[in-house]
Amino acid sequence: MFIQTEATPNPATLKFLPGRVVMPEGTFEAKTPEQGEFSPLAQRLFAVPGVTGVFFGYDFITVTKADGEWQHLKPAILGAIMEHFMTGAPLFSNGYGAVEEDGEEFFDPADASTVETIKELLETRIRPAVAGDGGDITFRGFKDGVVYLVMKGACSGCPSSTATLRHGIQNLLRHFLPDVREVQAV
C-alpha cells in the first residue's frame, strides 16, 4: 500500500491519500481523542504524540499537529493509516458514521431561493476546491446578507482561511448573489 502526502495551506495540517475511498459519504472531524472514540483509525492517529486533530474526507485523511516536526511525526502517522487499512478494520465501530454539524441551519424562509443558490455554489465550486486542500466547508446559515459557514479539516485554524473566506468565497457568492454582503466562519 502506498500512501501519498500533500501539504495543505495550513502548516499544522498534512493531507494523506491512501489511494482508496476513506468515507463514501459525508465527512468526519475529531478535534479530541474523545470525539474520535468511535473510529479505530482516529484512535490510532490520536495515539501518535503531537496529533491534535483528524479529518476524514472522501479519499483523504488530514491530520493536525500541535507541535513537533512533520519529518518526525509523518512515519508514525503513515504507519497508523497503513495498519488500519491492512487489517481491514472498519472506519467506525458500533454503527457510528458521519455526523451532521452541531446546530441546525438557520435562515428566513423568504430567503430560501438565495440559500438554495448558496448551497449549490458551495457544492459545485467551493467544496471540491477546499477538499483539494484537505478540508471542507459547509453551510450553517444566512441572515441579513451574511452567510455563515463551518470550516473543517485543514481549513479549521488555517492562517489563510480568512483570505479564503473574504477574497475567494465571499467574492464568488457576491458575484452570483447581490444579496450576499459578507461571509463569516462559525
UniProtKB/TrEMBL annotation:
It comes from the Bacteria. GO terms for biological process: iron-sulfur cluster assembly. Residues 3-88 form the Scaffold protein Nfu/NifU N-terminal domain. Gene3D superfamilies: Fe-S cluster assembly (FSCA), Scaffold protein Nfu/NifU, N-terminal domain. One of its GO terms (molecular function) is iron ion binding. Pfam families: Nfu_N (PF08712), NifU (PF01106). InterPro entries: FSCA_dom_sf, Nfu/NifU_N, Nfu/NifU_N_sf, NFU1-like, NIF_FeS_clus_asmbl_NifU_C. Belongs to the NifU family. PANTHER family: IRON-SULFUR CLUSTER SCAFFOLD PROTEIN NFU-RELATED (PTHR11178), NFU1 IRON-SULFUR CLUSTER SCAFFOLD HOMOLOG, MITOCHONDRIAL (PTHR11178:SF1). This is Iron transporter.
